[in-house]
Amino acid sequence: MLDDAQIVALYWARSEDAIRETRDKYESYLLKIAYNVLSDSEESGECVNSTYFKAWNAMPPHRPQILRAFLARIARQTAIDRYRRMHAHRRQASQYMQSLSELSELLPGGETPEEKLDAKALGEALDRFLRTLPAKTRTLFLCRYFYFDSLKDAAQAAGMREAAAKSALFRARKALREYLEKEGFAL
């Protein structure tokens, strides 16, 4: 199996082997991300295929330093977009919706240019906040709210019991609220 730098080099060389190598190395990881949003295996597979296509179109000119994170971001956003299209008129329980409902008080929409700037500033503040968390709590937070893992899976990834993880997430959300208010965000 090739390392990430070699895979990125294949994309830059416009070799179709880049897709095959990406699939071999990251397919199960990307499927999990998409499934956590969509709760549908077939749609998740389509989302992952779209991720490969988008990665192909993004490289070049983009040369990701961390291929795994680059692909995760594409898969996550592709799945969210697909979820929104599929559920424009109805809501279905998924890890995505459960995760968002837990953070709903802290996250604005982001449609107007001003809201988009606010969302960017919020993202930067969130990055700063995450760096203040202990490693286990940061892992737990990212698993739950970036990858949309179930509470059980996020707790396992962080090496915690589910009850302890639930409490840690509650405290992290409370700390995030206080941090954002101190940074000047109106919540």
Please tell me about this protein's structure.
With about 190 residues, the chain is mostly helical. It has two domains: about 5-85, Orthogonal Bundle (Rna Polymerase Sigma Factor, Chain: A); about 95-180, Arc Repressor Mutant, subunit A (Orthogonal Bundle), CATH 1.10.10.10. Helices cover about 75% and strands about 0% of the residues. The chain has helices at about 5-10, 15-40, 40-60, 65-85, 95-105, 115-130, 135-145, 150-160, 160-180. Helix 1 (about 5-10) packs across helix 2, helix 2 packs across helix 3 and helix 2 crosses helix 4 (about 65-85). The N and C termini lie far apart (about 45 Å). The model has no long low-confidence stretch (mean pLDDT about 85).
Question: pLDDT average, as an integer?
Answer: 87
Largest sheet: none
Specify the helix fraction band: over 70%
The value of Rg in angstroms is 18 Å
CATH H-level homologous superfamily name of the largest domain: Winged helix-like DNA-binding domain superfamily/Winged helix DNA-binding domain
Number of helices: 9
Query: What is the CATH architecture assignment of the largest domain?
Result: Orthogonal Bundle
Strand content: under 5%
Structural class: mainly alpha
Any low-confidence stretches, pLDDT <50, length ≥5? Answer: none
CATH topology of the largest domain: Arc Repressor Mutant, subunit A
How many beta-strand runs? 0
Using the alpha-carbon principal axes, give the shape. globular
Tally the structural domains.
2
Query: What CATH first level of the largest domain would be assigned?
Result: Mainly Alpha
What is the N-to-C order of secondary-structure elements (H for helix, E for strand)?
Answer: HHHHHHHHH
- Measured between the Cα atoms of the first and last residue, the distance is 47 Å
